[in-house]
Amino acid sequence: MALRNMPLRRAQRFLENVKEQKEIVPFLRFNGGVGRKAQCKQWNTTQGRWPKKSAEFLLDLLKNAESNAEYKGLDVDHLVVDHIVVQRAAKMRRRTYRAHGRINPYMSSPCHIEVILTEKEDVVAKPTDDIPRTKKESKRKQRRQLARGDY
C-alpha cells in the first residue's frame, strides 16, 4: 500500500529511509498490537513500524525490476510502481525436538512478491475551455416551462 503509485526512485529512497528509521511504514490493515508512532501522522494514521528485513528484500526486488526494465528499453527515470502485492507461498516444514521424546513442527512462512513497473510520462495540465458551460436542466423542468410559456 505504501509503495503503490510511487515513482521508482522515490520508492527506493523510502525503503532506504525505513531501514534507517527516518520514515515509517503505516500498518493500515493488519495492525493488531502495533504500537503508535508520531511519524505516522504524514500517512493520516497512528500505527506503523520500520520493517528492516522486509525493506531490504523489497529494495533488492526493485533493483532487479529496474534492471529488467532497462534491459527492455524503458526509461528508468519515468518508472512508477503500478502494482505490488505479497501473497502466501507453501510453508516449509522442519522439526524441533522437545523434552520426553516429542517433536514439534518448525514451519517457515515464505511469500511470493509481485511488482509491476510501468513507464508514466509527465502529467500535462488539462486545457481550460473558453466557452462557459451552461447548467443542464431536467426534462421535467423543460416540459413545465414549455407548458407555461416561460421560454
Automatic annotation (TrEMBL):
Region (Disordered): 126-151
PROSITE patterns according to UniProt: RIBOSOMAL_L22
Entries under CDD domains matching the protein: Ribosomal_L22
GO biological process: cytoplasmic translation
Gene Ontology MF terms in the entry: structural constituent of ribosome
Superkingdom in the source lineage: Eukaryota
GO CC list: cytosolic large ribosomal subunit
Record InterPro entries: Ribosomal_uL22, Ribosomal_uL22_CS, Ribosomal_uL22_euk/arc, Ribosomal_uL22_sf
Compositionally biased tracts (Basic residues): 136-151
SUPFAM superfamilies: Ribosomal protein L22
Segments of skewed composition (Basic and acidic residues): 126-135
Assigned keywords, A-Z: Ribonucleoprotein, Ribosomal protein
Keyword Nucleotidyltransferase appears in the UniProt entry: no
PANTHER family: 60S RIBOSOMAL PROTEIN L17 (PTHR11593)
Family label: Belongs to the universal ribosomal protein uL22 family.
Protein name: Large ribosomal subunit protein uL22
